[in-house]
Every structure is written in structure tokens, then in C-alpha cells.
Amino acid sequence: MIQKGLSTYVRTMLSTQALLSAIGVGEKSATVIGATFQWFLRDLTGMVGGILFTFYQGSNLDNNAKRWRLVADFMNDLGMLMDLVSPLFPWAFVYVVCLGSLSRSFTGVASGATRAALTQHFALQNNAADISAKEGSQETVATMVGMALGMVLARFATGHPFVIWFSFLSLTIFHMYANYKAVKCLKLNTLNCERCSILLVHFMKTGQVLSPDRVSTMEHVIPLWMMKPWSLKNGKLLHDRVRLGVRVSSINDQEMSNVLCLSGSRYRKSKYLLFQQKGDDIKIVMHKDSTALDTLQAFVHAIAMANLVNEKPSSGSESFSWMDSHYQDFIVKLQSSGWKTERLLTHSILWRANWQTKPSDSKEE
Q: What whole-number distance in Å separates Cα of residue 43 and Cα of residue 311?
């Protein structure tokens, strides 16, 4: 972690030097009001970007802490790159630095949120404050050393673009590699959608539950849009086919009637409804009185249904029998393997429904 911090602050010094040069520091033609206005636009863009990012992605940061930690560092590197290239495009300087500020605003939100989640993971003795304080001290030391090295490098690299770019790109590659390895080393024992999917598919095949150490090597930390489509064929990404907490209005009347007629007695006792789409997508409607445990059960049921359909397209209804026979055993083995089963880390469920004994009583809240 200290090595990553050092590389970040050395590169920050280089990018800041380029940014100040582009604004006009040291030039007689530059005006104070012009530089102030450009800096203001840069900061304003970052603030607005941080608010919008929180609004659209805030609920997803907790359930994918490892992935967002990696994305946060990537966006920070992109922001520094924008500052470094800003002198090369004087006609578009404001646009370039605003893009860099926007990128770093995503970093601020994502890194802060994921740091809180990861700190809780390391606080094995419920000493999150102690862990956070020590991490802050380490980061301060890394900042001081990185700033000193950055000033030395900036001093000798001034007027030598090749040295600046070689140093920046080399440190960036090292930073991303170190961050990727650090994230891969994290062995989280909380259940999110992907980890739950990996565990359930393995359990349905072997009857055994994988350990957190093993699952950490199997889950993806790189964003899925960068992954190849073949990854969907091995069952590891079944969770992408499950839509949790959908609106009742997104379900047509025929699907609603079929589900409630065929499995009405089961759904009267359950706090969720499952709807399998033609494209293999499975929608989950949660009851207004459902709890965190109900959400976990609903998701496990949906993954079991998707996995059974993969093996035999007409076996979707068999998921009810599987849940009755194996769900409790699955939960017990998860707990004995060190997994936390109190809740499923997922996005906030905004839409819930209320249903009675008849399909016609089903209504959206």
C-alpha cells in the first residue's frame, strides 16, 4: 500500500507542475482572474460530478468494494493523465482539466466508500477506528516521502518531456499492477451477488461450500464490461441474469397470473416472487415486509433456478423442490465455512409489493 501511495504522489507532482504551467504560472501574459476562473470551473465540475456519481452508483459501492476500489484508482490515474496532457491542448485546456477533475471526483466518492467497507473487514476485533487511524498515519508518511521524491523528479525533469512521460507512465503501470494484486489478496467473507453465485453453483455440483480464500481467487475484480462474453458460459456470472427488486408494473398480467396460480401455496409463505423471462432473465419482486434474510433466500432461489435451467431448460419449477431440500443445509455450511449470512450485499431495493392469497390483490407500493 505504501508503494502505491508513493507512486501516486510522485505522479501528482508531475501532473500538477504541468497543470500550473498550462494555466500560465510564470508567464507575464497570464492574468490572476483568468487562472482563478479556470481553477473554479475545474473544482465546480468535480463537485457536480461527485454528486451525480453518488446519486447513480452510491448503492452499488458496498456490494462491490473490491471492484470499485480498483476503478477508483484507475479514475484517479486518468485524472492525473488529463492534467499532464493539458498543456498540449491550449485551445481545449478548460475542457481537458474539467474532465480530469470529473474523473477524480469519482475517485473521491468510490475510494471513500470502499475504504469504509474494507476497514470493517480488517477490524477483526471491532477496532475500526484504530485501523482507520493507523491507515491514515501510513498514508501521511507515504504522502510526505512521495512529495519529496516528486519535487526532486520535477526539478530534474523540467524541460525534458521524455523523462516526464516515461516516469509518469512507468509509475502508472506499476501503480495499477500493485493495486490489482492488493485487491486480489483481499479475502472477504461477506456475501455479494457474485460470491453467492459462485458458492451456490459449486454447492449444487458437489454439495460442498468453498472457503473465502478460494472464492477470492475466482471472483472478478475487473469491471464486467471489460470481460469477454465467454465468461458467461461457465456459470460464474449467473448473477447478471437476476434482477432483484423489480417493479410489479414491469411484470405483465399473464406472467403474474401464471406464477401465482402454479405456485400460489408457496408464495403465500414466501416474501418474494420469481418471474423467469424468455431471455433467461429472472426477475424478483420483494414483499413489503421482507427482511435481509428474505432477500438472501430470494437471490439464492433465483440463482438455483438459473443454474437448473442451464442444465435442463424445462426444469425451472424444480428449483422449489431444491430449495425445500437443500437451502437450510447450504446456509449452515456457509456459516461453518466462515461466511457471514446475515445479509446479501446488493443495491438498495426501492420497489416492493404486497400480495394476498389471490393474484388480483397484488398491488405496487
A: 53
